[in-house]
Amino acid sequence: HSTLVEALGMLTYFADPYSSWQRGSNENRNGMLRRYLPKGGSITPDMADELQAIVNEINNRPMRLLGYRTPAEAYQQELLNLPHQPQCCTSI
After folding, report:
1. For residue 92, what is the DSSP state?
2. What's the rounded Cα separation, in Å, for the pair 7 and 45?
3. Would the CA dihedral through 84, 85, 90, 91 be positive or negative?
4. Cβ distance 22 to 14 under 8 Å?
5. Angle of helix 71-81 relative to helix 48-59, nearest 10 degrees?
6. 82: three-class secondary structure by DSSP
7. pTM of the full predicted structure?
8. How confident is the model at residue 35 (pLDDT cuts 50, 70, 90)?
9. What is the pLDDT, as a whole number, of residue 27?
10. What integer is the mean pLDDT of 31-53?
11. How many C-beta atoms surround the C-beta of residue 33 within 10 A?
12. Which of 31, 32, 26, 6 is CA-nearest to residue 14?
C-alpha cells in the first residue's frame, strides 16, 4: 500500500470497521450489485459474460458524486491526469 501511495502520489482513506456510513458510494454500488446478484447466490466460472455485462452497466451509470459522469469517464480522466512515469515492469 505505501509503495502505491508513494509511486502515484495518491491520497488514501480507510474507513473504520463496521462504519458503512463512512463509505456511502461503496455501499451504494454494493446495493446495485445485489440487484443482479442476490446475497447468498453463487458466482461460477460460466457466468463470465453475465458478470462482464453487469460490470459494464454499473460502470456506465452516471453518479452525482462524480458530477454526473460515469465511473468509466472519471477513471479515464484520472488516467490522463496522472504524471507520466516510465513503465518499469513490462517486457520487450
Report:
1. -
2. 34
3. positive
4. no
5. 70
6. coil
7. 0.58
8. very high
9. 85
10. 91
11. 13
12. 26
Q: Which residue type occupies 35?
A: R
78: cell is 484520472
Q: List the chain domain ranges.
A: 2-81
**Interacting residues of 32 by C-beta distance below 8 A, sequence separation 6+:** 58, 61
Residue 59's nearest CA partner among 75, 71, 77, 73 is 71
Residue pair 60/70 in contact (Cβ under 8 Å)? The answer is: yes
Residue 86 to residue 63: CA distance in whole angstroms? 32
What's the grid cell of residue 74?
472519471
Q: Which residues pair with 88 in a beta bridge?
A: none
